[in-house]
Amino acid sequence: MGILRAFIWLRWRLMRNSLRSGQRRDALEQFSRGLAFLMPAIIVVLSAGSILGSGLAGFMAGLQGGRGRESHDVTVLAMRILLFGAFVFQVIFAVVSPTQSAFAKYTRLLLLPIRQRLLHLIEVLSTLADPWMFIVVPGLMMFALGLAIGGRLEVAAIALAAAILLLGVLASFGSLVAFLIGWLLRNRRRAEMFTLVFVLSLSLASIIPAAMSKRYGKRHQPRDPATTSAPQSLEELNASLPAATLLLPSEIYGRTIANAFDGHYARAGMFLLGLLLELGVIYTASALAHQRMIDAVDSSKGWTRRATGARIGPKLPGLTSAASAVAFAQLRTAIRTVRGRTIVLLPGPMFAILTFFFRSNSEERWTGYLATNGYLLFAVSGLFAIYALQAFSMNLFAADRSGLTMQFLAPVSDRDLAFGKLAGCAAILTATLALALAASLLVSPAGSIALWLTVIAGTYASYLLISPAAVWLSALFPLASDLTKTGSGGNPHPLPMFAGLLLTVVVSLPTAANLVGFGLWRQRPVLALALEIGWLLIAAAVAIPLVVVASKTIASRRENLGLVAQGK
Amino acid sequence: MSDLALATTGLTKSFGDLVAVAGIDLHVPRGSFYGFLGPNGAGKSTTIKCLTGLLRPTGGTYRILDMDPLADPVAVKRKVGVVPEDLALFDRLSGAETLAFVGQVHGLDRASLTKRSEELLTLMDLTRAAGDLVADYSHGMKKKIALAAALLPAPRLLFLDEPFEGVDAVASRQIKDLLTAFVRGGGTVFLTSHILEIVERLCDHIGIIQKGRMIAEGPIDVLRGAAGGTLEERFLELVGAERTQTQTIDWLAG
């Protein structure tokens, strides 16, 4: 118990101390950290409603079921679906936030006189503190309470036992996945490759069902309802499901409750036993994976590269040698991070898939427009590219972490630093646009060349107009993000991110109006291009002096930027 | 031209109520090997950060190589090399790219960069690892590439924060030889270290700081005193270390 108490205390103190302001931070930095804290606080407040709602829904469902006023089929089916959702969430969360970042702390724990079995148990129990578990637990517990108050004490007892076993299975399974991923990620290069493939696959896979559903819906519309045989009852639905789904903890839980409702207590007991057996197997597997992860030799060594000499990059036009060096460092370091590669690789293929599906579904007016005027979807991908670039552009300095100190120690003026950083981001944007352009030309080459060029000019005009704000906000609200990871860990400070999102939309409006007005409506592509080039020149004329002004902010923020970038 | 490579007067750095550096006066002669010593938390790294522009001093004045770093920081940085406490390296650049970055920032031409980087990489025994990302380097290799980056533009003053910490005997020897040659060539080294034997062997001038204040400064022979004791004895005497403290902890004796 003492150890468990120590762990609870440790988690609490770590959370509390992360909100404390250090002596070395100035007032603006403390304000910045306060703002960064605001987002999770809003999520906590929103979650409070969900937790209460879940408890209330569970209680009412239990009460109605207990009093036998309504058929329990709907209740059980709803619970099966919701619990399956919780199970999927648990697995996804275990994959996207694995134990990789926690391993430094883990080494400290392993040095303490704590048995590994206990350490494993604590890890499994801590999974119950995941956000959706806060929603699932009250729902399940209040359901059992509702049943008891409704007069079905036996069913309530079975529901309570099933709920506890189900939570155990969910926690163990989440831990099992997290430990396996943790073991996999002990090698840095392998870990980065895994994360990149995972993120790209997940992002691309997520848009396929939406597109497929439209095609599916259209193809199946003419069919005679009499010939289709959708399941009419819970029994039919159960029979139609593949046998393997019976292994899902949510399914075993659902069958346990359904049998208990029907008074088949022996069968409910069998399902309960099945849940217990599943818990035993998964918990043991999780313990083995935990052991494996701990025993794995930590390797941060990547693949050996061919030794190369120091080669100076070319001096970029309009930039000094120092600013060019900063730009190349920005580009090189960015494309070697998971976040940077995702930014470059994602918009192109995503755009290609979207275009492909829109083209094959061109009965709808607007999708038809997009499919036959590929430059429009290319424009959307450009907008997306600018938004995705925010991980770098809205955190120009602190994202470099230790590398920022190197730049501060080098003879680089604030102006060169700002222009170098922005040029580096522009190079990333160029790589993204090139891939998006190639993909779009591959699947939908329709449209005037002038309009494709208009999109390119418009994207750069938008980027230029955001640039001064990017320098200013990055200097004022830095955040030591980790771009080797996906998720919120690689995001900039919430305020610049939000401001960047709004700005991206606002500064892109003239280009959008030009494309729609002179591209689609008036059919004057050359005029659209001429206007867009004019807009690009205006953007440059406005942005460059503003970047010079914004770069003056860096001088007064250097000290804090350096501290934040080092994670202090 | 002043005889001093570095001179500070009343250099102060505060963080709110915490005074990390409390008005120190430093006098580092040109061509000297200056050891800046002090117990943990004495203010050594904060002083170096102030001098190299990573922190803005809250008081005092200082000049580096006869220049005012606050008035023209870029000009000073062209003449100064730094290996800071956290090494300040881009994890995602290779060793060779790190040198290329520094070379380009300092405006080196291609031929000079190639020649200098090849020589430094060979000297540091990093040639084979030149194409590997710094993230894949061991701690000692990171120290060496950071030192190579600091030396590449041929600075006249080197700031080194704990250059020998976590470095093996072979690398330590290489670094010592390199620094000795640098000073012999007219350069100035300002280093902090906890390894007093190394400081005693390398440095000709010493400054000792405690609780943000300079408590001793001068040529090492003068500091050691006429009695000729070791630097460690003199250091412990000056910082007032309580040597008998462990004897009072009864339970440690088992």
What does this structure look like?
The complex is a heterodimer of chains A (568) and B (254). Chain A is mainly alpha-helical and 568 residues long. Helix content of chain A is 77%, strand content 0%. Chain A contains 22 helices and no strands. Chain A has helices spanning 2-17, 27-67, 72-96, 103-111, 116-126, 131-149, 153-184, 188-220, 234-240, 249-261, 265-295, 321-335, 338-345, 347-359, 365-372, 374-388, 390-393, 402-409, 414-443, 449-476, 494-521, 525-565. In chain A, helix 3 (72-96) runs parallel beside helix 7 (153-184), helix 6 runs antiparallel to helix 7 (153-184) and helix 10 runs antiparallel to helix 11. The longest helix of chain A is centred in the N-terminal third of the chain and has 41 residues, at 27-67. Chain B is an alpha/beta fold and 254 residues long. In chain B, the strands form two sheets. A six-stranded mixed beta sheet of chain B has the order 5-6-7-3-8-9, with helices on both faces. Chain B has a three-stranded antiparallel beta sheet with strand order 2-1-4, covered by helices on one side. The N and C termini of chain B lie far apart (62 Å). The mean pLDDT of chain B is 89. The interface between A and B is large, with 44 and 53 residues.
Give the arrangement of secondary structure elements:
The complex is a heterodimer of chains A (568) and B (254).
Chain A: H1 2-17, H2 27-67, H3 72-96, H4 103-111, H5 116-126, H6 131-149, H7 153-184, H8 188-220, H9 234-240, H10 249-261, H11 265-295, H12 321-335, H13 338-345, H14 347-359, H15 365-372, H16 374-388, H17 390-393, H18 402-409, H19 414-443, H20 449-476, H21 494-521, H22 525-565
Helix pairs in contact in A: 2-6, 3-7, 3-10, 5-7, 5-11, 6-7, 7-10, 7-11, 8-13, 8-14, 10-11, 12-19, 13-19, 14-15, 14-16, 14-19, 15-16, 16-19, 16-20, 16-21, 18-22, 19-20, 19-22, 20-21, 20-22, 21-22
Chain B: E1 4-15, E2 18-29, E3 33-37, H1 44-51, E4 59-64, H2 73-77, E5 80-83, H3 95-105, H4 110-123, H5 139-151, E6 157-161, H6 169-184, E7 188-192, H7 196-202, E8 205-210, E9 213-219, H8 220-224, H9 231-239
Parallel strand pairs in B: 3-7, 3-8, 5-6, 6-7
Antiparallel strand pairs in B: 1-2, 1-4, 8-9
Helix pairs in contact in B: 3-5
